[in-house]
Input
Amino acid sequence: MSLRNTAPAIHPLQKIQFVEPHIFDITPTVKLYWMQPVPDETTRIEFHFDAGTIRGNRKIAGFVNSLLLSGTADKTSTQINQELDGLGAYLDQEIAQELAIVSLYCLKENVEKAVAILVNAIQEVAFHEHEISDMLREKKQQFLVSSEKVSVLVRRAFQKQLFSNSENYNRQLELSDLEDVSVLDLKRFHKEFYLQGLRKVIVVGDVEPAYIDRLIDTVGAWSKPGICEFEKDFINIPGRLHIEKKDAVQTAIRMGIPLFNKTHEDFLDFQILQTIFGDYFGSRLMSNIREDKGYTYGIGCGVAESNNAGYFIIATEVGKDVAEATLTEIKNEMDLLKVELVPQEELDLVKNYLLGQILKSADGPNAMMDLYMAAHLHGKDFEYYNEAIQHIQNISQERILALANKYLNWESFTIVTAGTKD
Amino acid sequence: MIQFERFSLENGLKVIFHKDTTTPLAVVNTLYDVGARDEDPEKTGFAHLFEHLMFGGSVNIPDFDAPLQHAGGESNAFTSNDITNYYDVLPAQNIETALWLESDRMLSLGFTPKSLETQRSVVIEEFKQRYLNQPYGDVWLKLRPLAYHTHPYQWATIGKEISHIEDAKMEDVKAFFHKFYNPSNAILCIAGNFELDEVKRLVEKWYGDIPSKMKPARILTAELPQTEFREQIIERNVPSDAFYYAFKMSERKSAEYYITDMLSDALGRDKSSRLYTSIQKEQKLVTEIGAYITGSLDNGLLVISGKLSPDVTFEEVDTAIWKVLSEIQTEKISTKELDRLKNKIKTAKAFQEQGLLNRAMNLAYFELLGDADGVNQEAILYEQIQPEHILANAQDILQKTNCSLLKVKAIQS
Output
């Protein structure tokens, strides 16, 4: 037998060396997390604000986030951008349901100056009328373009169905929201959710320890007083919903159910089940719907977590003629996991794959910090990942079958399609 | 500074080894010197379709992905107009699994009819998802043939049209493999916490017996110098009018390449750039605008693209753009502005080099350009650029007779 007919031996995972961040109390509830050992000159700083889309009304959170660097009484937005660019700094503003993040990426030598410019810009933002109208014009155009995409149409409708009992969580921007906005509302939101809304600061970089103290002094006044409240117990509207989009050659499909986050006892084992089902290249969904039928370029599933809840989602874009056939196959794959034990060989493969994924998600200081924060959000630390490794190593075929029966029930799913119906 | 060692096998395989003692992972990156530019004009999209088939099982191993996943790893690939690049990331102790898989598919593919049939469908869905079912998704399918009349850059990696993919035959697939997939046409880069001797032994063990073949000669139809302004208008059911100005620029290996890259940054990389501040921010003629280069190995393109504000005409924007272009051709940019561009490049490079996979891909790519150490020389090349270089380059490139303009006119159907 030739060398090539036999796979090389597989060696088990070594113990992962987790590196804990240093944690500083800005206030009893607002902390700074610092990952110091970084073997290069890069520095990443993130400010997390309680300024997500669930705060304020449907549009205001996104508007304020977009306008954070839009100029102060003394500086135009272009001046601010030029100062930051002059220091070689990259800035990222993102907003999600439960938080808004401002991230700064630059070299260590420039971090103090860049943060000072950024903090001043956020602190003193003036909400100039012309900047607001620029923002509305640009947002309107982005909204119109994204509304041409079936993947966007399906996402908006899905959110509404999934968080049906919560206006805060199911709200979606409408074109009419982009006509105008009150400056007073913007200022109020900025004051309440940014200037008194800081929840976390993250630093990944080999900066001077004394700088961490100065940074805390600089932004400490923004700390959110008290505890943030987030909703849970979301109720979805099960069943089908179709969004018609003329002349689409593909149909986007999005389906899901409210689920849980890391705090739930089934979370770790469900992760293994959903990986088998659709969360890696060799998954049941990919093998059937892409690699066997050729209906799609890609299909996948995942668990999205929030502070007090979570949901399970399956998403794909398929040829418009095979949308119904795809749904049938997704159902078939769900049903199969409920009646037949996962073959031991497949389970072993997924176990090894997942262990490799944990190793990968702990590689390098930035990944290590993200890994820590993902556990920390739910009151856990790195011990959680050792527990995850135990779960992966010990899970049985029967446990997978039981979990599939507990959670993968077709009738409970919200199923949204967007595209052209023949 | 990215350290590396280089060696080659008797069959012509070039190998780069990058040692990183801090990571528990290994990367096996394989660059094949073949891209869409090497395709038959009547069989386009083939290099990319072939990339998909490379995951459909090799001569001794029926499935590529499963053994790699079983070893805790994962894999992917991309095809450009110039190259096809495959990579595996896995726990370092299992690197041999990746070498076993990669060497077997370099030796020969399984060529199963089922794999071809399925991947044809998958690629057609990719064509639809990325190019047909997105607003403005097909502009590059139109812009390329406008800018390139003779060079094979006139088609995109996905192919000119779906029918080329539909018509792909097994004999075409086999011929493509035999021509381009062999050790002398590949660069292997291995990264991770290993010793050089160990890497040499493993590479020799898995790749040493792959038969040697001649590196295929590349004779491409050169693009004739452009001497006239080109313009095309297409009508699409999109929300707003859009424009794409494409200027021919130097090839990748030229010293000019770095200057044009920086010129495009000055024009439209970020919110301090000239086009953004003048045309979007001050004159409010557009709702987005940017400039970038294609970065191709043969003569590339510097592209300025954007979308018009409501009630603004193409003519108004055109006048405004040429005014900005004229300014950068008549007055040297300040050292302050130049330093800003250099600092952004420095930061971007530092972050890119954090990732093991990025480092491995870059080393292989620079080895293709002639020397893997080029990855370490780039920073100096950018640093040396002076205002007069930008001025001369702008005068050279930003000419109307060097420009192809594609306009997308929004219509309501």
About this structure: Chain A touches chain B through 75 residues (CB under 8 Å). Residues 239-419 of chain A form a domain with the Cytochrome Bc1 Complex; Chain A, domain 1 fold (CATH 3.30.830.10).
